[in-house]
Specification:
single chain; alpha+beta; Calcium-transporting ATPase, cytoplasmic transduction domain A; Calcium-transporting ATPase, transmembrane domain; Rossmann fold; 4 domains; ten-stranded mixed sheet; eight-stranded mixed sheet; translocase; ATP hydrolysis activity; ATPase_P-typ_P_site
């Protein structure tokens, strides 16, 4: 399937796009060899369908469970453990082989289950809705599946239809389409058959309609010009094939760490085997020793523990209404250093709302959020105005309906006016019943206004009134008078109205003017027959400023992101002026640029200017993809949000692509995170959870690497000093500590309280990684301490350690390592903060259990036989505890010194 898409993409690149939008309707039908009255003949339609293929978008299938499981098997850590299992069987260590094999199987099953669960948390890519299409064939209007459409088909559209393919408008009446899924433009677009210029941008091609956009108003007849992957939607879908899957920063770091551990482990095995060979040990003894060392040096629990922590983060994200498609993406969130967010519905409510109004020369403030009827219209002294006549003038010339719970049917701008009328005391639905239209002039993009004729109460009598709403520049030219504050008719104050319009526009508001003309009853029949002729000599009632308002929590979320060192940019299909005003309100800073300006910049120039650019308006899918790539080239870990198909390529390219739950299925498929509440604040909180998960993973790695290095040192020392022929501990003892005891350690780290002030620090630099100079020194020092305290019983214990028989000295070394493992989890769960400070109760409760396991493994018969341990005396137990406390002194002393040094540096700064 990918090859097919890629081939189509290559073919498209070789064949320039035809500028159908710049051709006259007759020229389009001539080129496509069709007839706008009778359409194609059935035989020709069938031939074109066989040649071009169905009108459908292609998508890649999700990976199967078996494929995910195979990827788990092929992990380097798993392969090393499989090798240990095979060697254990060859030398007769069946118990060890069984334990390691079970561990391998557990890792594979757990990793697969968690990965599958994470993938299934997001709805699988559903097929894009396959609408029916009313198509003219052989002069007969038929209804067929849209997948059967071909270029040259003549299709009829009406309000509520989903556009089935890209089409050139042949004729239309009051046509508007909602194209936010394609262009990002939040408002419906007026459409018509008039040609555009060849250079017209996609979002401004008013002579075209595009696949999977919706008709919100009017009717049209179109000719299909592109189908399937050749449509604009298909072009965007094909961009996804240019963006390969990428590993998360954690995956890359753990892959590198695993390779390093592999080199260390097998190098240690080689050195110890060579020492044993020089000492003259038999092959069986050498293989047994090699197995013990390999088990000690390989972090057997690392895959499952990291997966468990990531699964914990994924579960926590899901509870916060953010669903990850892959567990590794949980950690990527924590490294986010740049967020590119769309505007509509993410930073804003996606509810057109009147924010300000200008009536009678005075400016009024409108309160209330979204489509809720709660709210008032307030004057300069914050007194609410009661103007039912004004409410009628605003509510009547609209076709939208808004329910009490905020559901909207119709144009969102008209819905904003219906809500404004409600805040002025008028129920628009009831008013339209009480004062039915006697005539109307439907909205048309050519004259940019709508007018309705009604009889309404005014100053105690019923008056015949023609109410007009539309673009302010058009309506103002038709006004000669206006209503002042006392509702008296006075000459229109054009300069004042123009000043108010400029003020509203400068703040990013979309403006509409409301006007009326009072008419004589005797002229009703003449006016009803031709209402357009009466749209003149109007009385200006007012101007309203409409905006899609910010979510109340969005500004706070941006502040949190900035405090966390995350650069936030807004990328939208709206005009740059509107976007810039929203950006200023959010506190994104100056620097608004349009898509047209972007195209004039080279990559070098844009990269240089990016630090000062935070708002991008009227951008194309290619612009979004370019921005993400440039930010990544500069070293940023980029989160890109979006809900539309036009966002999908950039979302897939981003390190953490974020789709909205209400968005398109294509976008969800490309994304790594889905926000079920479409809220920017949820994304910022998800970044916080990602940081928490990463801090816990680094705490676990600090703990795990310390244990592994101490074991490698212990076996090397045992070989060098001929302690028990190099067998410092039995393989079963190492497995018991590394898995069963350490299991509770990871639970304790996961249960630890969140690190304080985690969003007050800049994002970590992924180039530094978990393996760096500071962490290596820390691992080596702590590991050396554990090695030395475990070596003491082997050198000076109550008896001589044996490679074949259980001894008290080896048991004491095993107990010291076990207790040090438990204590390490407590102390190393955070740094440089003390591990002994509250809250500690939850962690302590968990760590009681591994202590009990260690005691049981030295006192219960069947465990003694399985692990090769013996019972210890009270003094021997006290000796083990005393040695373990040395670790506490060193670790807490080191962290105290580092805190003091950091404080000194801060005071000097």
């Amino acid at each position: 399937m990918t090859d097919t898409i890629g081939a189509e993409q290559a073919q498209r690149d070789e064949q320039p796009e035809t500028g159908w939008w710049a051709l006259a309707p007759a020229d389009v039908t001539t080129r496509l060899e069709t007839d706008d009255r009778t359409g194609l003949v059935a035989a020709e339609a069938a031939r074109r369908l066989a040649e071009l293929g169905p009108n459908a978008l292609h998508s890649a299938p999700p990976p199967s469970v078996w494929r995910i499981a195979l990827s788990q098997v092929l992990e380097l850590m798993t392969l090393m453990l499989i090798a240990v299992t095979i060697v254990s069987l060859l030398i007769g260590q069946v118990t060890t082989a069984i334990i390691v094999a079970v561990l391998v199987l557990f890792n594979i099953i757990t990793g697969t289950q968690q990965e599958v669960k994470a993938r299934r948390s997001v709805d699988a890519l559903a097929k894009l809705q396959t609408p029916k299409a009313r198509v003219m064939r052989d002069g007969v209007l038929l209804q067929i599946d849209a997948t059967g459409l071909v270029t040259g088909d003549i299709v009829d559209l009406e309000s509520g239809d989903l556009v089935p393919a890209d089409g050139r408008i042949l004729r239309s009446a009051n046509l508007e389409t909602q194209e936010s899924s394609l262009t990002g433009e939040s408002l419906p677009i007026p459409k018509g058959p008039a040609e555009n210029t060849e250079t017209t941008a996609l979002a401004d091609r008013t002579s075209m309609v595009f696949q999977n956009t919706s008709v919100t108003r009017g009717t049209a007849r179109i000719v299909v010009v592109e189908t399937g992957m050749r449509t604009q939607m298909g072009r965007i879908a094909s961009l996804l094939t240019q963006v390969g899957d990428k590993k998360s920063p954690l995956q890359l770091e753990l892959d590198g760490l695993t390779k390093v551990l592999g080199i260390i482990a097998w190098s240690a095995v080689l050195v110890i085997v060579l020492i044993g060979f020089a000492r003259g040990q038999s092959l069986d003894e050498l293989l047994f020793l090699a197995t013990a060392v390999a088990i000690s040096a390989i972090p057997t629990g690392l895959p499952v523990f990291v997966q468990s922590l990531l699964a914990w983060g994924a579960s926590k994200l899901a509870k916060e209404r953010a669903i990850v498609t892959s567990l590794n993406d949980v950690e990527t969130l924590g490294a986010t250093s740049a967020i590119c967010s769309d505007k509509t519905g993410t930073l804003t409510l996606n509810m057109m709302t009147v924010r300000t109004a200008w009536f009678g020369g005075s400016t009024y403030r409108v309160t209330g959020e979204g489509y809720s009827f709660d709210g008032r219209v307030l004057g300069t002294s914050d007194e609410a105005i009661d103007a039912p006549t004004l409410g009628l003038a605003i509510g009547l010339p609209n076709d939208a309906t808004v329910s009490a719970d905020g559901d909207v049917v119709g144009d969102p701008t008209e819905a904003a006016l219906v809500v404004l009328a409600a805040r002025l005391g008028i129920d628009a639905d009831q008013a339209r019943k009480d004062y039915p239209r006697l005539a109307e002039v439907p909205f048309d993009s050519d004259y940019k206004f709508m007018a309705t004729l009604q009889r309404i109460p005014f100053r105690g009598e019923q008056r015949l009134v023609l109410i007009v709403k539309g673009a302010p520049d058009v309506v103002l030219k038709r006004c000669t008078t206006m209503l002042d504050e006392t509702r008296e008719v006075v000459p229109v104050a054009s300069d004042a109205a123009t000043t108010e319009l400029e003020r509203m526009s400068a703040t990013g508001l979309r403006t509409l003017a409301i006007a009326a003309r009072f008419l004589d009853d005797a002229d009703e029949a003449r006016i009803a027959a031709d209402p357009m002729a009466s749209v003149s000599e109007l009385v200006l009632i007012g101007i309203v400023g409409i905006v899609d308002p910010l979510r109340t929590e969005a500004k706070d979320a941006v502040t949190v992101a900035h405090n966390a060192g995350i650069d936030v940019r807004m990328i939208t299909g709206d005009h740059a002026v509107t976007a810039g005003a929203i950006g200023a309100e959010l506190g994104l800073g100056t620097g608004a640029v349009s898509g047209a300006d972007l195209k004039q910049m080279t990559d070098e120039e844009l990269s240089r200017r990016l630090p000062d650019l935070h708002v991008f308006g009227r951008v194309t899918p290619d612009d979004k993809l370019r921005l993400v790539r440039l930010l990544q080239a500069d070293g940023a870990i980029v989160a890109m949000t979006g809900d539309a198909v036009n966002d999908a390529a950039a979302i897939k390219q981003a390190n953490i692509g974020v789709a909205m739950g209400s968005g398109s299925e294509v976008t969800k498929q490309a994304a790594k995170l889905v926000l079920t509440d479409d809220n920017f604040a949820t994304l910022v909180h998800a970044v916080e959870i990602g940081r928490i998960v990463y801090s816990k993973i680094t705490a676990y790695l600090r703990f795990q690497m310390t244990q592994l290095l101490s074991l490698i040192m212990l076996f090397l020392a045992a070989s060098a000093f001929s302690i028990a022929e190099g067998v410092a501990l039995f393989p079963a003892q190492v497995l018991f500590i590394n898995f069963f005891v350490a299991l509770f350690a990871v639970f304790a780290i996961a249960a630890d309280a969140n690190p304080p002030g985690i969003m007050d620090h800049p994002p970590r630099d992924p180039r530094i990684g978990v393996v760096n100079r500071v962490s290596l020194v820390e691992w080596l020092v702590y590991g050396a301490v554990i090695f030395l305290i475990a070596l003491v019983p082997l050198l000076w214990g109550p008896d001589a350690p044996s490679p074949t028989e259980p001894t008290a000295s080896m048991t004491m070394a095993y107990v010291v390592l076990g207790l040090a493992t438990v204590l390490s989890a407590l102390l190393m769960r955070r740094t440089p903060e003390s591990g002994l400070l509250a809250p500690i109760a939850a962690v302590a409760k968990i760590l009681v259990w591994p202590v009990l396991l260690i005691i049981a493994s030295t006192e219960i018969g069947f465990l003694q036989r399985a692990l090769g341990t013996v019972s210890l005396t009270g003094w021997q137990w006290l000796g083990c505890i005393g040695l373990t406390l040395i670790l506490l002194v060193v670790v807490e002393g080191d962290k105290w010194f580092r805190r003091r040094r950091a404080a000194a540096r801060a005071s000097r700064a």
